[in-house]
């Protein structure tokens, strides 16, 4: 981490792979951010986060099939801050993980929902993931 309070995609990737809630660097006078990682095993569960905290969702994906995890965030309470694919470059077409990072921006209950579908299709998703988040106000 090069600068305090700035989290790079590489740092987020390390956080996501750790499987733990971690304290992220903070700027002077602010509460440190926390990050939690969620994956397929967490589907249908409920979690609590505070405004400013990050929720990292890591879901298996193989983009060469045309299917991709597409988030459906509630922009009032969650802001999508990163959306990337992490996978092996060899062999070509190998699967990996879609990593979606959300920041809690508004208090209240929200359903974090993602659907795996083709972007050009209008059909039903082949798979869905959702978690209920209770976004709490920041601690002073």
Short description:
The protein is mostly beta strands.
CATH fold node name: Immunoglobulin-like
Please bin the fraction of helical residues.
under 10%
What's the β-strand tally? 9
Alpha carbon gap, first and last residue? 25 Å
Strand content: over 45%
Task: Please render the helix and strand layout as text.
Layout: H1 9-18, E1 22-23, E2 34-38, E3 46-50, E4 54-61, E5 67-71, E6 78-87, E7 96-104, E8 108-118, E9 127-136
Parallel strand pairs: 2-4, 3-9
Antiparallel strand pairs: 1-2, 4-7, 5-8, 6-7, 8-9
Polypeptide structure, described:
This protein is mainly beta and 140 residues long. It has one domain: Immunoglobulin-like. Helices cover 7% and strands 46% of the residues. The chain has one helix and nine strands; from the N terminus they run H-E-E-E-E-E-E-E-E-E. The strands form two sheets. Strands 1-2-4-7-6 form a five-stranded mixed β-sheet, with helices on one face. It has a four-stranded mixed β-sheet with strand order 3-9-8-5, with no helix packed on it. A hairpin with an 8-residue loop joins strand 8 (108-118) and strand 9 (127-136). The longest helix is centred in the first third of the chain and has 10 residues, at 9-18. The model is unreliable at 1-6 (pLDDT under 50).
Q: Which features does this protein show?
A:
Immunoglobulin-like, 1 helix, mainly beta, disordered N terminus, about 140 residues, about 5% helix, four-stranded mixed sheet, five-stranded mixed sheet
């Amino acid at each position: 981490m090069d600068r305090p309070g700035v989290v790079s995609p590489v740092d987020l990737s390390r956080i996501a792979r750790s499987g733990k809630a971690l304290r992220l660097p903070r700027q002077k006078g602010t509460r440190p951010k926390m990050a939690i990682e969620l994956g397929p095993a967490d589907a249908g569960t409920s979690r609590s986060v505070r405004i400013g905290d990050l929720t990292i969702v890591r879901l298996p994906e193989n983009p060469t099939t045309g299917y991709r995890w597409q988030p459906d965030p509630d922009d009032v309470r969650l802001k999508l801050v990163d959306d990337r694919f992490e996978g092996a470059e060899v062999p070509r077409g190998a699967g990996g993980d879609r990593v979606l990072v959300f920041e809690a921006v508004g208090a209240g209950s929200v359903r974090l929902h993602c659907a795996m579908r083709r972007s050009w299709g209008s059909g039903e998703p082949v798979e869905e993931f959702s978690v209920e988040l209770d976004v709490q106000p920041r601690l002073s």
